[in-house]
Amino acid sequence: MTYEEMYDLILKTGEEDERIRAVTMEGSNVTPGAVHDKYSDFDVTFFVTDIRPFTTDKDYMKRFGDILIMQQPDDYYAEPYDYNGRKRFAYLTQYKDGNRIDLTFIDISNIKEQTEFHEPRTVLINKDNFPELCDIDSKEAFYIRKPGEFEFFNTVNEFRWISNYATKGLCRDEFFYARNAMEKLMMNMFMKMINWKVGIDNDFKVTTGSASKYLKNYLTEEEMTRFKAMFASGDYADMWNKLFLMYDYFEELSIYVADKLGFALDLDESRNVRAFMQQRKDSVK
User: How far apart are CA 214 and CA 83, in angstroms?
Assistant: First the structure.
């Protein structure tokens, strides 16, 4: 099924089912400047008179095609969904033909909550003219947020602290422990810092998208090459090398952000931690 055919089917479903009182589209398809190609999802919301028939009908999404795999994030083993209640519910569905629909159901008894919705949205159907539903063209809700000094301090502190986990894992030959420290824990802090730099350079009026997927649009070719060079192979020597590359790049970024935002930054601590990391590396036989 083509994109246009799927779009028409979604509209037809919303128009013909009297239980569905409104349909909106969110996500990249309606976000200014977002990538829109054959891999783009349909992010759609159905506002319904009673959500319960839709949450209990596990075959509902078959009307849009042959399902490859489906996920129900609101019904998770750690937090099971109350099927007698009326809380929002989503089906994330990948179809065999390549289309994907992330379809959220919202009971109209909860429509007042939509006044707090600020992400880009297009109203496709509004049978009852709900005033809470309106088109939103601005992507301001996704803009990189300027940090406060305490958040900046915590980010720097966490990055330096976790670097000791990485060195310990490398010294002990604990492969995944070290990689988890580098590529998840430290990288989470690194991505905050490099996004703050992007925000500063663009007056905090841009977004790098989910998981910073548009980061390359805001870095120079040299910066992007340096960023990609931080990711290590499975070789321990390379992991040590990339750990220090990441550490030094993070320090440069933190100096830049601190200077531009007028934040304090303890560089003595940074140098001492780096020296401790080097000492551990040198101790490995």
Answer: 38
Span 178-228, pLDDT tens digits: 999 999 999 999 999 999 999 999 999 999 988 999 999 999 999 999 999
Q: Distance of CA 276 to CAs 81, 145, 162, 164, 183, Å?
A: 48, 33, 13, 8, 20
Residue whose entry in the numeric block shows the structure tokens 């977002």: 34
Q: How far apart are CA 148 and CA 192, in angstroms?
A: 13
Nearest to 253 by CA among 171, 206, 189, 203: 189
Task: Say yes or no to pLDDT of 32 above 70.
Answer: no
3-class state of residue 202 by DSSP: coil
Diameter of the chain measured on Cα atoms: 73
Q: Measure the CA–CA gap between 94 and 106, rounded to whole angstroms.
A: 21
> Is the entire prediction scored with pTM above 0.85?
no
Q: For tokens 């993070």, name the residue.
A: 250
Residue 34 predicted with pLDDT over 80: no
As beta bridge partners, residue 123 has: 24
